[in-house]
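Run: sequence + fructose -6-phosphate -> complex structure.
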Amino acid sequence: MIPPSSPLDSRRDRRGAVLVFDHRDRAVRAIATEIAALIRERARTGHACVLGLATGSTPRGLYAELVRLHREEALSFANVTTFNLDEYYPLAPTHALSYRSYMHAELFAHVDLDPARTHLPSGTVAEADVVAHCADYEAKIRAAGGIDLQILGLGGNGHIGFNEPGSSRDSCTRMVTLAPGTRGAAAADWGDTTPPRYALTMGVRTILDARRIVLLAWGEGKADMVSAAVEGAVTAQVPASFLQEHPQAQFVLDAAAASALTRPSAGSGEPSG
Ligand code: F6R
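>> structure
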């Protein structure tokens, strides 16, 4: 087990907040510790904790660590409500590659989360009802009190959730057409079948409404997009760049994912983590 440690680099400046760890396991432990503290603090004061969750390869280690905290350190999820970013459309929740199945396998089945408090957009709602379903998803997030902490991964094209390049800052939960590169990246998982063309996703605004946002990114393959999102212009062409405008958003990186960043000049940052 790798012990927790201080990040290599911690800064918050006008380009957004960045926290770099030498290994992703250390980053995962730091974020899982933050989530556990938030859940426990809310439980202590009799409140729910609302988590926004992502799928994909990036957060697997985080979910494994949360499961470990549940099993070994008595972290209860009884007061937790979850909202996932997205779901393929059309796709049954029981499909092995649905994001509902992913969440069940990685987290929901292993902790004491009330299934009725876990939410994902539906991949089976009738097309005529998609707009109403998406509005209802937004209403459910509001009714839960808003998202306390949103976990994000980073798409190879800069997407967050399935907000592909061109997504407006004001976008809400809606049906989107997946970019060819996004479907290409998913193709390996889908084997002989092709990934769905569409998805339902929280919008950029839905994400930015979260009180705290943690974008996780690992490995050299993400480095250029991390650099564009953190240090480039805020633009709909790189939806993750909108996080620069959120005062409590943080890019939590391993050293490889941070390798294309320019280090801050002395005095430009302040501790953020
Ligand atoms: C997943 C999601 C996507 C992924 C992104 C990175 O719910 O919304 O934005 O976070 O595509 O995927 P990985 O982690 O597989 O590189």
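>> summary
Residues 54-58, 85-86, 153-155, 159-162 surround fructose -6-phosphate (CB under 6 Å). The chain has one domain: 16-254.
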